[in-house]
Specification:
The complex is a heterodimer of chains A (459) and B (454).
Chain A: H1 27-30, H2 33-42, H3 46-54, E1 72-77, E2 83-87, H4 92-102, E3 106-113, H5 120-124, E4 133-135, E5 138-143, H6 164-180, E6 187-191, E7 196-201, H7 204-207, H8 211-220, H9 243-265, H10 271-278, H11 284-299, H12 305-322, H13 333-342, H14 348-352, E8 358-359, E9 374-375, H15 391-399, H16 411-416, H17 420-457
Antiparallel strand pairs in A: 1-2, 1-3, 3-4, 3-8, 5-7, 6-7, 6-9
Chain B: E1 2-4, E2 31-33, H1 34-56, H2 61-75, H3 81-99, H4 103-122, H5 126-136, E3 142-143, H6 145-161, E4 173-177, H7 182-186, E5 191-193, E6 196-200, H8 204-234, H9 239-248, H10 269-276, H11 279-291, H12 296-309, H13 313-328, H14 330-344, H15 359-363, H16 376-379, H17 382-391, H18 396-407, H19 411-423, H20 434-448
Parallel strand pairs in B: 1-2
Antiparallel strand pairs in B: 3-4, 4-6, 5-6
Helix pairs in contact in B: 1-2, 1-3, 1-4, 1-9, 2-4, 3-4, 3-9, 4-8, 5-8, 13-14, 18-19
Classes of the chains: A alpha+beta (459), B mainly alpha (454).
Bound molecules: iron/sulfur cluster (SF4) and zinc ion (ZN).
Region (Disordered) (chain A): 1-26
Keywords (chain A): DNA replication, DNA-directed RNA polymerase, Metal-binding, Nucleotidyltransferase, Primosome, Transcription, Transferase, Zinc
Organism (chain A): Raphanus sativus (Radish)
Chain lengths: 459, 454
């Protein structure tokens, strides 16, 4: 039996009764196949997803590529970890049917290929490399687990309101650069459902970038070079920060480091914590000078952790300031510390390859039951990962008479429902401007094409 | 280009007195004698091979400039400028034919020709450089006046960020879509604003090289088509044998197949790792045993090395399964990891054999949080490196020698010194490849232990 032949099971099971909302749900209470089936049956925004991934190729304009959507790879992860790659769908409704009949735990979106991914085997017979990715959004994946050495509230997959702001800063830094530096306009940020964020850059130019160009953008964002075996994880050389880093530092990182981060993580408050920072100073005299100061002050302090932490930071800055000339490696030491703690830690490998898969927006995370909703980068401070609607809440809402979200255009109604706000945001802030510019592009390139073929008649 | 047997030759008309870099845009209308066809190609191959060596040894750009200059003088120079130009062009087109025939060959040729072009371009004066930009027809406008004024401060910041103490902005900047200068973007050597990179006159090389590279890359595809459809058959008695011999005459060892010394089995892998692996692999190996896991970069680096060392696919699967299943369970292992291992052995996907990484590649990798791959001499902190070397049994004298090389960024030499200290013999060739390290160490150990009685 091939993977593709695995059929959906349990089709005769009945709809569940309304679940009890529970503050500490067990995984199976916040997420299971039956909930998922209701979710896919009533709430999942198929049409919006299809519109997005069609990029204006809706068949209405003579310049449209009507096979565009059909060449997009999807992959499904099913209940029992069965993993189906290279699925593709001609239409929105065939995608909807496939999802409704197999209710995947996870839906990933891949690249647009030169030929229909479903039929790749037919082409591979010919021996030449015709099955290749041709377009792909430029994507970024940031995961809070990569910050474990700089957060003290949680570790691993956990997040809380104290460490989530690290993600918020990451969004601000990257989003600003994508728009200001690279000039991108159509950018979608999405909560990954549990512990991080995904970013989709959808401008035509971004979608057509080669792997080399993707790597270049990814590397532009790389500051963090540390690994498990080296304490000085960020190394900044030169006499000044590159304008991108300087802006990130001045506009976001410095303020966050001295404000929110100190308040929530008190990163200098104990010996364990400050030793890690002292290691980043490549001068043993300064290290021991500060260490001595802090060890002595520890016993007789009545200050709060945050206050202690702030005082020590000031001391460190002053000490470094007075010894700046000592060695070139100390020149940027303050900045290095701030960057180490606050600069976005992107999983760059995801961004570098066209054919990397990334989870679709509006999926539900199997461990938390939370929906992968879009995040507004301009108001990302307000985003609370713990307030994102969960499957049980959504189902409760349906059962108590809430409306289905998918195809309705009743703005009033959708606004009030749990998922409505997110879908509305997706449409108005992302989808509509995107489709408008896609249509314009299709129109222009159609006109030039017509123009060219007219020229060639005169030859 | 016509290949002829006769002695006479039609010299090209556009004789240029000073050395000039051709862009190889079109096949030259000239006649070539068969002997020259081959001899020129071999001379150019020597240059390209030298470049490849230099890059593998991690030479810096300045050293590469000198190297290319020397290589060119040695193999390609001719007192007569037009003769040299002809030789330059002919040899390029012959090698294009030789190297168009597989993806591997294409890739190598493309990188080496690009490197050659880059360094020759750098050796030209600014005027000659501008002329080449013109010849490519690059449509870039210099930024001037108010626009330049408005950017001065941030351009100065870029200059300072690159290690220059004064923010002196150059006189000429070009405004270029950022995607056309990926290398400058990647290393943050340009100011980028609203989709445009501001490329300084002195960075022109990067722009031109990108053009050159994409031109050669496309040309190789076309040449390949011509080769397979017509040339190979038409020339089967004359050029084809020459072309085919040229590509195999030089290929150095890539360690994708294990040699006689290398053949290890699962039961003595721990012993062998301890006695014969270079530090980078020893570290990865210990980490798998300890954590029962490795992130992708580590799995690739160690996995391909083990393949080169002669670990059979089944043993490799057994090895990784034994460790990983302690952490992720066998179902997930089969689903997520087994495929990649078979892939490395060419048993899945495109079925191409992946070759083990050379030091150069490992050293230039960029391990991130949670990663253990990379070259310890480059990526470990001093303390961790000292501790690791201590575990390999280095004396404090030897340790200082190694650390000295590390401080000067000669990582492969540091590794060579370690090798020499551990095995007590000299290694003049230097370490260029972890599998080479392994094979050399095996040779030494096998020559020391007498064959076991049967
Ligand atoms: S120099 Fe080469 S063999 Fe030695 S540790 Fe580094 S990468 Fe490994
Ligand atoms: Zn937390």
């Amino acid at each position: 039996m091939t993977r593709e032949e695995i059929k959906s099971r349990g089709e005769d099971e009945k709809m569940m009764d309304a679940p009890q909302i529970n503050n500490n749900p067990k995984p199976e209470e916040s997420f299971n196949v039956n909930y998922l089936r209701i979710y896919y049956g009533n709430l999942f925004p198929y049409t919006d997803l299809h519109k997005w991934l069609s990029y204006g190729h809706d068949g209405k304009h003579p310049g449209c590529d009507e096979y565009y959507f059909g060449r997009r790879e999807f992959s499904f992860t099913l209940e029992n970890d069965v993993y189906l790659r290279y699925k593709s769908f001609k239409t929105a409704s065939s995608m909807e049917d496939a999802i409704k009949s197999s209710f995947p735990y996870k839906i990933d979106i891949g690249a647009v290929y030169s030929v229909d991914p479903d039929k790749r085997h037919a082409y591979s017979q010919t021996g030449t490399n015709v099955f290749t990715p041709v377009e792909r959004e430029l994507v970024f994946d940031i995961d809070i687990t990569d910050y474990d050495d700089v957060r003290y509230c949680c570790s691993g997959a956990d997040v809380c309101s104290k460490c989530w702001p690290l993600m918020t800063v990451a969004i601000k830094v990257i989003h600003t650069s994508l728009t200001e530096d690279f000039g991108f306009k159509h950018i979608l940020w999405v909560f990954s459902g549990r512990r991080g964020v995904h970013c989709w850059v959808c401008d035509p130019k971004a979608r057509r970038m080669t792997n080399e160009q993707r790597s270049a953008v990814a590397e532009y964002f790389r500051v963090y070079k540390g690994n498990e075996n080296n304490a000085r994880k960020v190394v900044l050389m030169g006499y000044s920060l590159h304008p991108f880093l300087a802006r990130s530092y001045v506009d976001y990182l410095k303020g966050f480091f001295e404000g929110e981060l100190q308040a929530t993580q008190s990163i200098f408050s104990s010996k364990d914590k400050y030793e890690k920072i002292l290691e980043m100073i490549s001068d043993e005299d300064i290290q021991s000078e500060l260490r001595e100061k802090w060890e002595n002050s520890a016993a007789r302090s009545s200050l709060s952790e945050e206050a202690i932490s702030l005082v020590r930071w000031e001391q460190l800055k002053n000490t470094l300031q007075s010894k700046k000339h000592k060695a070139p490696t100390l020149r940027m030491c303050v900045e290095e510390i701030v960057f180490t703690f606050t600069y976005p830690r992107i999983d760059l490998e995801v961004s570098k390859q066209m054919n990397h898969l990334l989870k679709a927006p509006f999926c539900v995370h199997p461990k938390t039951g939370r929906v992968c909703v879009p995040i507004d980068p301009n108001n990302c401070d307000e985003f609370d990962p713990l307030a994102v609607p969960t499957l049980p809440q959504l189902i409760e809402e349906i059962n108590s008479g809430g409306s289905r979200m998918d195809v309705d255009d009743d703005e009033e109604d959708s606004d009030r429902s749990l998922l409505g706000k997110s879908i509305k945001f997706f449409r108005s802030s992302f989808l509509e401007p995107l489709l408008k510019s896609c249509k314009e592009e299709i129109e222009t390139s159609y006109k030039t094409k017509i123009g060219k073929s007219k020229d060639s008649f005169s030859w | 280009m016509e290949v002829i047997r006769s002695q006479k030759r039609t010299p090209s008309n556009d004789t240029v007195s000073n050395p000039k870099i051709p862009l190889y845009l079109t096949t030259p209308p000239m006649e070539v004698r068969l002997e020259e066809f081959e001899r020129f190609a071999i001379d150019r191959l020597r240059v390209l091979k030298g470049i490849s060596d230099g890059l593998a040894r991690g030479r810096n750009p300045k050293e590469m400039d000198d190297l290319v200059d020397t290589l060119w003088k040695e193999h390609m120079r001719d007192p007569d400028g037009s003769v040299m130009l002809n030789k330059d062009i002919i040899s390029h087109f012959v090698l294009r034919l030789v190297y168009c025939r597989s993806d591997e060959l294409k890739k190598w040729f493309l990188s080496m020709e690009t490197a050659l072009f880059r360094h020759r371009f750098r050796l030209q004066n600014f005027e000659a450089q501008r002329a080449i930009v013109g010849e490519f027809g690059l449509p870039y406008k210099a930024v001037t006046g108010a626009e330049l004024e408005g950017l001065k401060e941030r351009l100065g910041q870029v200059v300072r960020s690159l290690g220059q103490i004064s923010p002196t902005v150059e006189a000429v900047y070009y405004k270029v879509p950022f995607e056309e200068v990926p290398d400058l973007v990647a290393s943050r050597r340009v100011l980028i604003q609203k989709g445009y990179a501001f490329v300084a006159g002195s960075q022109l090389v990067s722009l031109v090289v990108t053009q050159f590279r994409s031109h050669i890359s496309k040309a190789l595809i076309l040449t390949n088509r011509k080769w397979t459809t017509t040339i190979r058959e038409r020339e089967k008695d004359r050029l084809t044998p020459v072309v085919e011999a040229l590509s195999t005459s030089y290929l150095g060892p890539d360690y994708s197949q294990s040699t006689e010394y290398a053949e290890i089995s699962l039961k003595d892998i721990d012993q062998v790792a301890k006695s014969c692996f270079p530090l980078c692999m020893r570290h990865l190996f210990e980490k798998v045993r300890e954590d029962h896991h490795l992130k992708h970069g580590g799995r690739m680096q160690l996995g391909l090395f083990l393949k080169g060392v002669g670990l059979k696919l089944d043993d490799a699967l057994a090895f990784w399964r034994a460790e990983f299943t302690k952490k992720v369970g066998s179902e997930r292992f089969d689903k997520e990891y087994a495929y990649a291992i078979r892939h490395n052995y060419g048993k899945e996907g495109k079925r191409t054999d992946y070759t083990p990484y050379a030091c150069q590649k490992i050293i230039s990798s960029a391990p991130g949080a949670g990663d253990h791959h990379g070259c310890p001499y480059r990526h470990f902190s001093e303390d961790n490196l000292r501790a690791a070397l201590g575990r390999m049994g280095l004396s404090s004298r030897a340790m200082e020698d190694v650390m000295d090389k590390v401080r000067n960024k000669h990582y492969q030499l540091a590794c060579t010194f370690t090798f020499e200290a551990v095995y007590g013999t000299s290694c003049d060739a230097g370490i260029n490849h972890p599998n080479q390290y392994f094979e050399e160490s095996q040779k030494i150990l096998k020559s020391k232990t007498p064959p076991a009685p049967v």
